[in-house]
DNA sequence: CGGCTTCTTGATCAAGGTCAACCTTTGTGG
DNA sequence: CCACAAAGGTTGACCTTGATCAAGAAGCCG
């Protein structure tokens, strides 16, 4: 993708993200030092390594994950356009999560200490910034709660609805359908299931007439019933999302 | 507990927490508007409610939790002295996690917009602040990963080791033993197990000679073997922890 | 000493893991 | 355009982990 100035950022135009004033935007533009394209499967951040650079996902899908001793991968977070990548690895000496591209991705690169400048110059932005972190934590909280009590197909249904709504906010879902590039193995690592059982669960959702998934796409057939099945409440988000 | 000025805060003296300069400390002192004692079992923050106040746990144990529709509780985080409480509920419109005291607790109260002032006046503190949030996220990440793959007793062992190390950093554990006020039911809600199975798992750790728990206390008998059993690595923490 | 709550132990059962065979897609080269 | 290989997905059989239900055993008050 051609280099995009933050002033012309296609994401920033979306209602979903907060706006900066022209001069703040100018500052953010100067903080963006590079833009890189990576193919599907590329490792964006190596787990266990310290990083100096902070990324924003401009387009494409990625996963934040962690490996355990046995070599099994657990996906901790699904990263969609607008997601900040690498905060763990810039702030912690021994961050053990990494990030990998699921589709071809385009990344905005913020070198040096963008957060220093951010908090110096864009001081009043810390509330949206923290709110966005809290929103992500909320998502993790829900996941934790569900893992404790619900069955595989309920968890899958919840994950699909939540993901669909995130995509819709990015303008990447309409009429119940969305591009959805995850494979069985990814679902397994996200939900903490075996890929075999993910298969069974998707079959169940399909049999119930709730949703079908095939060939990189997701279709939700009966939103209302599926939300009941999953115990999903689409709550209005807390304000706009922060975008560096 | 008598009102403690931040300048005389017993926690701040610990090596575990970062230090402020005298004038910053003075500022924080003025932000602390109150100090309250609550008995064991008291609800510190009501789930689902918006809150204006931010708390710091000065002494005692508390749990951040969330209820599901079926009325089951899931503990999301164990809060020990120094923990910030209520960030979710001040920043999000619809925060659904609450906090409850496990032991009698003493809370420092920060009214109004302490974070505003913090970031205005203590601007350079944002790195420790975010680092601390990332450290807590790391703990959650590990928990998520374990839930996916490990057995109940391994998860319990990991949780005990992690908790023990947190207590040790607070000077509340020596020689393998620590005050540990959680009940079977709390463990169940933390680990996402039934209390019955927590019982079996503690029995297993005891039979293996790794650790025993009785009467509000935890004793780790064979740290090394237990760490191997749990796959636990006590990594040096990333810098000091932020304490408002 | 009852009358609580918490903890333990046992028996049964269901959700999901594992292993293995087979089916579908997709891609590649002749 | 077909043949075949490789990767991903589905289905089935069996087994393990941990949930559920229920009955006792400790503690812990009054």
Strand tally of chain A is: 12
Classify the oligomer.
homodimer
Number of helices of chain A: 8
The mean pLDDT of chain A is 89
Give the termini separation of chain A. 19 Å
Structural class of chain A: alpha+beta
Largest interface: A-B, 45 and 45 residues
Radius of gyration of chain A: 18 Å
Q: What order do the strands of the largest sheet of chain A run in, or round the barrel if closed?
A: 1-8-3-6
Q: What's the helix-strand series of chain A?
A: HEEEEEEHEEHHHEEHHEEH
Q: How much helix, percentage-wise, in residues of chain A?
A: 25-40%
The low-confidence runs of chain A, each spanning 5 or more residues with pLDDT under 50, are none
Q: Major sheet of chain A, described briefly?
A: 4 strands, antiparallel
**Tell me, what's the shape of chain A?**
globular
Strand percentage of chain A:
15-25%
Account of the 3D structure:
The structure is a homodimer of 244-residue chains. The model of chain A has no long low-confidence stretch (mean pLDDT 89). In chain A, β9 and β10 (177-179) form a beta hairpin. Helices cover 39% and strands 22% of the residues of chain A. In chain A, α5 crosses α8. The two termini of chain A are 19 Å apart. With 244 residues, chain A is α+β, with helices and mostly antiparallel strands. In chain A, the strands form three sheets. In chain A, strands 1-8-3-6 form a four-stranded antiparallel β-sheet. The radius of gyration of chain A is 18 Å and the shape is globular. The interface between A and B is large, with 45 and 45 residues. The first copy, chain A, binds a DNA duplex (30 and 30 nucleotides) through α7.
């Amino acid at each position: 993708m051609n280099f995009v100035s933050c002033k012309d950022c296609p994401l920033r135009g979306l209602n979903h993200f907060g706006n900066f004033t022209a001069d703040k935007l100018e500052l953010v533009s100067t903080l963006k030092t590079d833009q890189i394209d990576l193919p599907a499967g590329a490792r964006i951040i190596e787990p266990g390594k310290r990083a100096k650079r902070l990324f924003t996902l401009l387009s494409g899908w990625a996963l934040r994950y962690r490996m355990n001793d046995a070599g099994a991968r657990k996906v901790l977070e699904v990263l969609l356009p607008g997601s900040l990548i690498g905060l763990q690895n810039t702030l912690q000496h021994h961050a053990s999560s990494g990030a990998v591209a699921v589709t071809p991705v385009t990344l905005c690169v913020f070198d040096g200490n963008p957060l220093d400048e951010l908090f110096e110059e864009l001081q009043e932005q810390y509330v949206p910034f923290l709110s966005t972190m809290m929103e992500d934590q909320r998502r993790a909280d829900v996941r934790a709660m569900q893992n404790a009590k619900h069955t595989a197909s309920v968890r899958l249904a919840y994950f699909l609805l939540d993901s669909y709504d995130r995509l819709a906010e990015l303008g990447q879902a309409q009429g119940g359908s969305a591009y959805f590039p995850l494979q069985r193995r990814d679902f397994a690592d996200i939900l903490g299931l075996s890929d075999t059982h993910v298969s069974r669960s998707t079959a169940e959702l399909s049999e119930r007439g709730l949703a079908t998934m095939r060939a990189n796409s997701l279709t939700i057939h009966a939103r209302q019933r599926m939300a009941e099945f999953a115990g999903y409440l689409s709550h209005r988000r807390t304000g706009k999302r922060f975008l560096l």
